[in-house]
Amino acid sequence: MRCVALLLCVACAPLANAYTPQDGDIVFHTSTSSQSAAVQAATRSRYSHMGVVLLRSGRPYVLEAVQPVRYTPLQTWLDRGLQGRYVIKRPATPLTPATKARLHAAASTYIGRPYDLTFEWSNQRIYCSELVWKLYRDAATIELAPLARLDSFDLRAPVVRSKLRERYGTDVPLSEPVISPAAIFASPLLVTVDQR
């Protein structure tokens, strides 16, 4: 009788690590970097960093724009976020194998590019949400969220003003096109598949 009860308890227990990574999953967390608080305040978002999951030899990695753009093992990336918290989303409409292959091909063109500290809309340097947005645009012809202008963010908080002075001096490019982690997080094209 005890064996039956034990089996029932095990069968009813939630599955640990039930998430199965897929090419193209989009991961979000709160970075512990020096600019995280400014990104959060300006975009009114809990999350300040993001990347794209890509399977390499069957193992999940996150392609992320840091210095420089690189692959990071998924678990390492998830653990690196503030308090180990994260959200993983994926397109509501599943990606085809051909689209996943194009994501891999597009990703290879960004490896090694420098991180963009001034959030310019160019391909010479790149920031995290710009990388994700452009990968999806180029590989899947999906624009995950509308672009905004820098001046559409909340630039009044002291931590934001300080970071703007540090990066731009007095010449802040307020009309620069930008995409934020918050805009992609809110995309109706994505569904949440895991979080902690």
Description:
Residues 1-16 have low confidence and may be disordered. It is built from seven helices and eight strands, in the order H-E-H-E-E-E-H-E-H-H-E-H-E-H-E. The protein is 34% helix and 19% strand. The radius of gyration is 19 Å and the shape is globular. The chain has 196 residues and is α+β, with helices and mostly antiparallel strands. The strands form two sheets. The protein has a six-stranded antiparallel sheet with strand order 4-3-2-1-5-8, sandwiched between helices. Strands 6-7 form a two-stranded antiparallel ribbon. Helix 4 (97-108) packs across helix 5 (128-140). The chain has helices spanning 2-12, 36-43, 74-80, 97-108, 128-140, 158-168, 181-185; strands at 26-29, 49-56, 59-64, 70-73, 87-91, 148-149, 177-178, 190-195.
Summarize the structure.
The longest helix is centred in the C-terminal third of the chain and has 13 residues. It is built from seven helices and eight strands. The protein is 34% helix and 19% strand.
Secondary structure blueprint with pairings:
Elements: H1 2-12, E1 26-29, H2 36-43, E2 49-56, E3 59-64, E4 70-73, H3 74-80, E5 87-91, H4 97-108, H5 128-140, E6 148-149, H6 158-168, E7 177-178, H7 181-185, E8 190-195
Antiparallel strand pairs: 1-2, 1-5, 2-3, 3-4, 5-8, 6-7
Helix pairs in contact: 2-6, 4-5
**For the terminal residues, how far apart are their CA atoms?**
35 Å
Structural class of the secondary elements? alpha+beta
Strand content: 15-25%
Poorly predicted parts? 1-16
Q: What's the total helix number?
A: 7
**Main sheet properties:** 6 strands, antiparallel
Query: How would you describe the shape?
Result: globular
Give the neighbour order of strands across the main sheet: 4-3-2-1-5-8
Provide the gyration radius in Å: 19 Å
Elements, N to C (H/E):
HEHEEEHEHHEHEHE
